[in-house]
From TrEMBL:
SUPFAM superfamilies: FKBP-like, Triger factor/SurA peptide-binding domain-like. The keyword Transmembrane helix applies. This is Periplasmic chaperone PpiD. It is found in: Cell inner membrane. GO terms for cellular component: plasma membrane. Its main location: membrane.
Length: 702
């Protein structure tokens, strides 16, 4: 017991300290790494005036947009470009909601439930509702059908009808509140009468002038010295001209994976082996053979010779039936072309038809559809109006508006039986044709330009880089990246070896595509995580390996002198040249004196109006136009030297002539107000966005 007591006495304090440290450690762990910890990575992808957009909400918004894009895409899939479009659309919707909703709330603008109901059930339904519930056959708004759908919402166990109606209500509410806001703002657009009258007065005459221009090019740039302080002062005085968004500049080398001679030889061997099999394949089996073995699927139709889009088409078009031409290159494919058939066909046929849908296409039972189309055929042959029958009976909505008419060519995509009838039957023929869609009554109305049409099979194989070729390109890129780890050696090696360096400038945080590379999101993200001068590891893209150096970082604000030096230097030198020329000319007594002093000719300009800063013989010269209409320099007087865009000008107004166009102040005011109001829809949000505090962090997540 005494031993235990000694341990208690000696180590009690130590044990208490250890327990306290354990508790503190647990608390700190939760604070720094727990769910609500201060060290937990933020999931905020953006903010607008302090209101956050969480990653999960943003992803849900993106999904909604993507689903909408899929519905409008025939394939139902999204490529990288459409996915990027969805991300931008979802982000802009968030910005629009937060920025505009704040304006609506501030102004007390709202849309009531009664107003929404009136958009459905009122005397004048919303145009969106009218479009949604328009009868396809009559073209009229079907109010009864709308009421039936509204009343049956509760019976739809899937909830899809309710979801669509809620989406429709939300869209109408947003459009109504937006219309109210725009109407409110547009009523504030005002162009005072006195301004309109002054504008009419300013534009009421044309000037004819004589002048001497001293171009800035008469002074060599090399003789004009400028300092960095002068250039920076110019930027400070013209900050609006040099505003920049956050961006990055990347310089990179692309190591393209290009098929080697060995790769081409391997592709040719495979192609020749399959060509030997094609030679023994019967015409009846050629379609299946091509679709199994070729990268160009078999087109079971005829193409007019004029529409043939292949290399050496004249040689291919002249092949006898059964003959083969090749191999030849078509982009990255090696191809054999085999003539399957040729016949004389029109290059264009105008037909009209009536479709009675049947069978699996959701139409009538097959037997009833056949009886109906036969009765329509008899009616047409008896003299009935074809167009009237189209309006009454056809199930082909696409051609209803044109009286059932289509233009058919050998290369257009129609159902095979329909297309064969249109191309092969004589003009005036009318008969019933059965297709997968149902029964068609088709009349051949006009045939044009009968000529050769060809059916050709293409056995094509790509020349793809082998694994060895790919590995070599990667090894070259990796070797360059490992030996050039800073910008200085990167540039030096490129110059020494004469490599082709490319530049990707003005990369923004959410960019996904780089010209010359394609989809390159990983490279953009690296550019925003790296330091200036850093050299990347090897990026792998489609058949390309890239090594990049981050050569410039631009923060939002005013551009640095290094970025805009050439443009600023040109402007400052031009201003110094103007000062020099003006100091030399002083206050000239006449144009003749200016001619003698500068060795520049006297010239004339006519039809100069105060409302236009463009002079035909000078170009864009607003200062010169202002000087011409300066009351101090009336007709016959010599102006002081005027600093223009292209040179220094000394002017003499010879005469003013009145314009023949009569205007009144009310019309001028109305035209101005209408032009501003029409631009509000697009410009207003941009202005509000500029005035808002927007923080975009999406580049950290995507």
């Amino acid at each position: 017991m005494s031993v235990i007591q000694k341990i208690r006495d000696k180590y009690a304090v130590v044990i208490v300290v250890v327990i306290c440290l354990a508790i503190v450690s647990f608390l700190l762990q939760d604070a720094f790494f727990g769910r609500n910890s201060i060290m937990r990575r933020s999931t905020t992808v953006g903010k607008v005036n302090g209101e956050e957009l969480d990653l999960s909400e943003y992803q849900q918004r993106i999904k909604v947009v993507e689903d909408r894009l899929r519905q409008g895409n025939p394939t139902g899939s999204l490529n990288d470009q459409l996915s990027q479009q969805a991300r931008e659309t979802a982000w802009n919707q968030f910005l629009s909601e937060k920025i505009l909703n704040a304006q609506y709330e501030k102004l007390g603008i709202a849309v009531s439930e009664a107003e929404i109901s009136d958009q459905f059930n009122g005397k004048n339904p919303n145009p969106v509702i009218v479009r949604q519930f328009t009868d396809e056959k009559t073209g009229q708004f079907d109010r009864a059908r709308m009421q039936q759908i509204l009343q049956s919402v509760g019976q739809d166990k899937t909830g899809q009808t309710r979801a669509r109606l809620l989406e429709l209500e939300d869209y109408i509410a947003q459009s109504r509140i937006s219309a109210k806001y725009l109407s409110l703002i547009s009523k504030a657009v005002y162009y005072p009468k006195w301004m309109a009258e002054q504008q009419i007065k300013d534009n009421s005459q044309y000037a004819s002038v004589s002048y001497v221009a001293v171009p800035y090019s008469t002074i060599a740039d090399s003789t004009v010295k400028v300092t960095d302080s002068e250039l920076k002062a110019y930027i400070d005085d013209h900050k609006e001209m040099f505003k920049t968004e956050e961006s990055r500049k990347v310089e990179y080398l692309a190591f393209n994976v290009i098929p080697s001679a060995a790769d081409s030889a391997a592709a040719l061997k495979v192609l020749f082996d399959e060509k030997a099999e094609m030679d023994t394949t019967s015409i009846n089996d050629i379609a299946g053979f091509i679709n199994r073995n070729s990268d160009l699927p078999f087109y079971d139709g005829y193409v007019a010779k004029s529409a043939l889009m292949v290399p050496q088409k004249d040689t291919i078009a002249s092949l006898p039936v059964g003959a083969v031409f090749g191999p030849y290159y078509d982009n990255n494919l090696i191809v054999f072309a085999k003539m399957i058939d040729r016949k004389m066909l029109p290059d264009s046929v105008k037909v009209r038809h009536i479709l009675i849908a049947s069978g699996q296409q959701g139409g009538l039972p097959d037997s009833i559809a056949k009886v109906r189309i036969d009765s329509i055929k008899n009616a047409v042959k008896g003299g009935a109006d074809f167009k009237a029958l189209v309006d009454q009976y056809t199930d082909d909505v696409a051609s209803k508006a044109t009286g059932g008419e289509y233009d058919v060519t050998p290369s257009t995509d129609f159902l095979k039986e329909f297309k064969d009838f249109a191309l092969e039957k004589e003009q005036g023929t009318i008969d019933v044709v059965k297709t997968l869609a149902g029964y068609h009554l088709i009349q051949v109305m006009e045939r044009k330009n009968i000529g050769q049409a060809l059916k050709i099979a293409y056995l094509a194989k790509p020349v793809s880089p082998s694994r060895e070729t790919d590995s070599k390109a990667y090894a070259d890129a990796n070797e360059f990246a490992s030996k050039n780890r800073d910008q200085k050696t990167f540039e030096k090696t490129i110059q020494e070896k004469g490599l082709n360096k490319r530049i990707a400038d003005n990369l923004h945080p959410m960019d996904h595509v780089i010209s010359g590379v394609g989809q390159a999101r990983e490279l953009v993200r690296w550019a925003y995580e790296a330091k200036k001068g850093d050299v990347s590891n090897v990026f792998t893209f489609d058949n390309t390996y890239v090594v990049a150096v981050l050569s410039a970082i631009r923060e939002e604000g005013t551009a640095s002198l290094d970025e805009v030096r050439p443009a600023v230097e040109a402007e400052v030198k031009k201003h110094k040249k103007a000062e020099s020329i003006i100091a030399e000319l002083k206050s000239p007594a006449s144009l003749d004196a200016v001619v003698k002093a500068t060795k520049q000719p006297e010239q004339k300009a006519e039809g100069i109006n105060f409302g236009s800063p463009f002079i035909a013989s000078m170009g864009y010269e607003p200062r010169v136009v202002g000087a011409i209409y300066n009351p101090a320099w009336g007709p016959g007087k010599i102006s002081a030297p005027v600093e223009g865009n292209a040179g220094v000008y000394v002017l003499r107004v010879d005469a003013f002539q009145p314009t023949t166009q009569a205007q009144d102040a009310k019309s001028v005011s109305r035209a101005y107000e209408q032009s501003v109001a029409s631009a509000l829809d697009q410009q207003l949000f941009l202005v509000l966005k500029k005035l808002s505090k927007v923080e975009d962090n999406r580049g950290k997540f995507f």
